Amino acid sequence: MKVAIGSDHAGFHLKEELKKTLEDLGVSYEDVGTNSASSVDYPDYAEKVARAVAEGRVDRGILCCGTGLGMCISANKIHGVRAVTAHDVFSAEMSRRHNNANVLTMGERVVGPGIADQVLRVWINTEFEGGGRHEARVNKMMVLDEAGK
Ligand code: RB5
Asked: How confident is the model over 45-70, as pLDDT tens digits?
């Protein structure tokens, strides 16, 4: 698996922590920035990661900002992206099992590095259940995605 990871200034330190988790998991990543705590605009980094996922250059994306929310809203504007904000292990797991989320966002001002590490581990290691009702519902989401273009 390969992932793209990005942040704004408010999520920079969390991004650096999550890169260590990815390394520990043996997951290769492309870091699209930002590379410091100097102020930048989160949609610019959300777009980089979301396009990498939507275009199939990576399997999944990870985005960090202050809350995780602006990154999530921005990433979901890109066709084919199913971004979720998850700050707990249960949500992270279910976002993979039921929603086939392909981008995870977290907020450095919301969650500490220890919980973020656990959330990311579960999110990376959980597969979409697929088949049956969950696949049909995800397909309906993607019809909405297409219709809203
Ligand atoms: C930056 O101050 C902050 O607004 C941003 O990181 C994020 O939390 C927005 O959703």
From this structure: 999 999 999 999 999 999 999 999 99
Instruction: Look up 13 and say whether it is catalytic.
Output: no
Ligand 1 pocket, Cβ-based, cut-off 6 angstroms = 8, 10, 42, 65-67, 69-70, 107
Domain that holds residue 23: 2-147
- 72 counts as catalytic: no
Q: What is the pTM of this model?
A: 0.97
Q: Any idea what the CATH number is for the domain that residue 104 is in? A: 3.40.1400.10
Task: Return d(Cα 112, Cα 83) in angstroms, integer.
Answer: 20
Could you read off the pLDDT of 20-31 as tens digits, one per residue?
999 999 999 999
Tokens 């260590």, residue located = 20
